[in-house]
Each structure stands twice: as C-alpha cells, then as structure tokens.
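Friendly challenge for the regulars: who can give me the structure tokens for this chain first? No prize, just bragging rights.
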Amino acid sequence: TENTAGDCKVTLNAAGFIEAPIDITQTRNLRQVLSWNWNNGTNNFQVNGADGNGVSNGAFYVRNDSRETNDYDVQIYYDVPQADRFVAGRTYRLVMKIRGTSNNSNNTIYPILQRNADPWQWVVDFKELKVPTSNNTYTEIILEGVCTGEADNNARRLQFNIGHYQGTLYFDELTLYYYE
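First reply, four minutes later:
Bragging rights claimed.
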C-alpha cells in the first residue's frame, strides 16, 4: 500500500508498517537541522495534553492513556531556531528510532513540519505512521517530504500529533536533515 501527500511517498507493508520509502544509503548533500539521542537526560520537546513524559534510559518517552478524538489533541513538538526555518521546495528527511507499548493496530502518530504561529498549517506532511509495537526493540524510521509553498518565517516546528496513540511511545536517535 502506498500513501502519497504531495511529494511525500511512504510504502506500507502487509502489516501496515512503513517500509523504507527512500534509498536509505542516500546521504549526499544532506545538512543536519537537529539531532538528539537523550543520553544526557535532557528533554528537548514541549508536550501538550499527554498524561506523562520524560527521559528514561537515554530515550524520550510520552504516555497517552486514552485515544483522543483528534490526533492533534496530544502533541509533542520542538521549534527550530529561526535561522533553520523550513524552506519551500526543500526536501526534508526525518530519521528516528521509535517503539511503542500498544498492541492496538489503530494506534498511529502523525509527524509533520509546520508553522509555529497562526495559521497552524503543516508545510511537510510525513503522513500517518503506525508505530511498531515492542517493549524492548526500536525500529528505525526514515521519512522524507518536500516543503510546500506555504513556508515562511514561522515554518519551523517539528511536531508529532499523538492523540490517536493510546500507550507509551519511546523516541531515540532523532535527526532532521534537509538536502542542499
């Protein structure tokens, strides 16, 4: 199954998990915007609506005890510095390791790059993501998308809408790049 939004294409396998949508060995002309591994115990994300969050064993976790009506009812986000704002036409690559505790196949998250001021529209839509379930093993996820023409000086928020995920999510080794 393929989900497409603009120039962002993600391939899902039969179980509904994302397969590598791109050549993961392609790294030429990549420039890093941010990179975190949480080994120092510092949380870089802001959190809205979650039932708990923090850093444990070198990974960021966030807990959502009930599935919300809207995916954006619970969010984690980070605003990149103004100098690193998202540029229209530029391709962005999000790489992260993730795991979840929920066995519910309907539990999804929605990673986006968006404006951090009204109107709160996305500028890169990475599409809805089914989180692999494992209490001990992380899955590396690589997503790419092209920034739309709506980007401006306020287009600088990396956000995960997690209101449709009931359980605990763990993030590690998260890096955001763009192609020059």
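Confidence is low (pLDDT under 50) at residues 1-12. Residues 98 and 171 are 5 Å apart (CA to CA). Your move, everyone else.
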